[in-house]
């Protein structure tokens, strides 16, 4: 399968527990086949993860350029941080690693940036002008800042210091689970977080993604901020779709 077929691209989403991938219809912003998921190798070393990415591509016989998310700062292909992944990734040239291990050229980008690009092109912020902030609430907090459709990469707003804490350690979905917070208690933490963010950036729209956005009706109405805030619509496919989209554009 190659991107010469119809309007296809290919996206891979590297997460802490699973590596997921699928061909993507770039006109519709939808997966063109059911995605494949394989467990993230433990330890999640660069070599082991790159091999797993190769297996996902092999499954679809994808032999062309692809996009791939990574849950850390990725600056021109170089992994710069490792908040929730194996620290051996720091300093790795992910473009070169994936190209040599899989035999296909890759664009590697931050996971939230990929999700943000997809939500702005096809999802909750489709065609929204102005300053759009897409955040993902999961193990960490990811952020994507998109201004008039142009992505400002690697904003890392999950690591703002708020009340002397790394924000994601108090407001990510993992903090809610770890501390057994009620939806109301967690919404208060999110109100604190998003109030701080909106006072710095004054976005026109905030989109909230991550698995917990599926249950947004339970907690989102209790987040009291001035900026319009809406759940993401592409759910757990946003990373795959955004990665494919950005790789096709680059
Ligand atoms: C990382 C970000 C990532 C986010 C979501 C944070 O801990 O620093 O790069 O986007 O988690 O995975």
TrEMBL record:
Signal peptide: none annotated. It comes from the Bacteria. Belongs to the ROK (NagC/XylR) family. This is ROK family protein.
